[in-house]
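Ticket opened by: R.M.
Priority: normal
Category: complex prediction / small molecule

The reporter submitted a protein together with zinc ion and asked that the result be attached to this ticket for the collaborator who will pick it up next week. Submitted input follows.
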Amino acid sequence: MAIKLFDSLTRELRELKPSHPDGVFRFYNCGPTVYAPAHIGNFRTFVVNDVLRRLLELEFGADKVKHVRNLTDVDDRTIGQSKKEGRPLAEITKKWTEKFWADCKALNCLDPHEQPTATSHIREQVDMIECLMEKGNAYRAADGSVYFKISSFREYGALSRIKERELKITNSAFDSDHKDSVSDFALWKAYKPEDDGDVKWPGPRGASEGRPGWHIECSAMIKKHLGETIDLHTGGVDLLFPHHENEIAQSQCCNGQLFSRHWYHSEHLLVDGTTMSKSKGNYYTLSDLVEKGYSPMAVRYALLSGHPKKQLNFTLKSLHDAEEALTGIRWFQGLLSNAIDPTPAPPSDLFDSTLAALCDDLNFPKALGELHSAFTVIRGGGLPKEKISAHLSALELVIQVFGFKLEKPKSSIPSAITALAEKRWAAKQAKDFATADGLRRELAAAGWSMLDGKTDYKLEPLKK
Ligand SMILES: [Zn+2]
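Result attached by the on-call engineer:
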């Protein structure tokens, strides 16, 4: 099944395909800045990218996808936090990297194949800056910093469609003391003892000691770990400008090659209908929600419940709904596991429409809708025994692509009992109460009681 994603550069739905002769699909996702815990808005992007990774592996093969996500461990915010706490930069970034990894694990996100840090790639960044200076795309300013000369790259602005006039307005807020043009951006920042403490490295040839600007790290790490041209570059929509625009300028001017064949941006998360902020009291980290009693899997489900190209409104009620929906999925998995028939069966196509919706621009709301309708079909069809094992494998594949880690259903209920219960439930739904009562007696005689809920039932052994 072809995977199609909306490409932010060409503004059209395009099929994803590996472009390198080795058939490996190269995929880069901008990672977090490790100075504080990531909030659930950050995790929306990472969880969406995790499903994309799983889908790519399903399409191209697990060993034919290479996924890289960086960790920004030096910038104004990380240095600011280290100064505020009076602790070394590396200590602060290690602490928040570990927290980020623990949250990713709790949310069942696969580890990227590489997670490079900016501070361990200073050499690669300096090399790239020197390359840009040699080619005339960058210049040394009076204070020893290095800037990228935007006027040297004619295609600048193609991704964000930003016009020259807007560019000047947008960038004039940043320091313009040393730049030739207000829209130029920093590749290397000269050391300022009052701001940078003891954070500094030897600079590119001719420049002062200092530290890299933020944008160059992604260009340099992509080149090292994925090569000059990648198949897909993703991130939150807030990174589209200027970060990704600047990455394109740096990489294409240095390498002389197309940088990324496809760009994908996921939208913002709103909480209670508005942007998240600590002052509004609607700012959540994963730990905040776990402390309130919600499971990380419910958070994952809720983050996946909206279309990634649209803003998603997250509420605590959406977490309640997510917990319920996951219980439903687990329940059906249990139902199928209990009733499994060992006879080999042809593959089930029951969940094909769910996967098709995922492959169509990650349409999560449609995919989840199709998943829950498939359950209605199973139930309506009275579970023909010979199809159960095929349905179960197909369902487990879908659960795996969504990345839902579900507790194994406790399957101590014999299949004959489940079959009776299903028959009784169908009779009750059809308002055939006489048949339903008869079946309840049959179940009781076999030692089981059936507790009816609004949309489902539970089976429990009768106490002796
Ligand atoms: Zn980046």
